[in-house]
Amino acid sequence: MTVDRGLDIVDFHLHFRIGADQTVQACEHAVGMHPGGERGAAVRAAGAAPYAARWRRAWSFPEPEPPAGHWPDEADRWVTELRENGIRRAVFVTGGGNDAVADVVDRHPDRFLGFAHHDPFAPGAADELERAVTERGLRGWKIFAPLVRGPLDDPALDPGWETAQRLGVPVLVHVGHYGSAGGLPSSPYDSPNHLARVARRFPELAFVVPHFGVQHIQELLFAAWGCANIHVDTSGSNQWVRWMPYRLTLEDLFRRCYETIGPERIVFGSDSSWFPRGYVGRYLDDQLRICREMGMPDADLRAIFAGNAERLLGLTG
Q1: Looking at CB atoms within 10 Å, which of 36, 242, 257, 306 has the fewest?
Q2: Average pLDDT over the chain, rounded to whole?
Q3: pTM for the whole thing?
């Protein structure tokens, strides 16, 4: 049975088999997220476990299961999840490498889209983006700013930004805390201020910051004030608000972004990523309820939950 929310939904932010994504893991190791030593790893895992268990219990989420042995089986499982939750299209922003996520998209091109997600500082990063988009059909570039080896406004990254701008694909840039409990708390290179300097140099390139900017929400709002090409995505449980030194709720985030950035630069995402949890319809329902309780007109709801994503992904016109 398909859930009917009375609205067309395009989800801008999912991950395919993120727990087994060697591309992302390589970047994590490069920034020292996983220092060696079995004893140290065990101590860190033990410290993070209570938070993770408490979070899953609060949301009634089951324990994650290992990825399927055969990736097409998992891709088919996602199609069922999307159909049953009434999601018309969904973007996998990571998926085990550019070719791997492109293969997933090719299996179900009517439902899936995908992003490149390679290291922007890697040799030939701009050429790889060109290949991923023009040869493999990917629709954007996902970058984890806490995992890069320098600031986003480093001139060494300009060829990548130039390529993305020329190809007309958006760049999704994660800033702030990376990972759940036990993750990286911050980075010297993940400030929206760095992103704003890039956005001003490449005004026709659309940047999207997920999870409302995490702890950098204030800097993100000001960056978006100065740069009309900076957008925000709403993805995830946004549990990070509990760690802020002042009271902040999901409704506060929506209201601030809606009143300042505007509905044309807010993009819905769920951050769905693992089974047996599957598609996190609860995140969607909570966000849609907040937007409706705020009294948003239907045109703004259509923009936030589908239209803006379609425009950024080149699915319109």
Answers
A1: 36
A2: 94
A3: 0.95
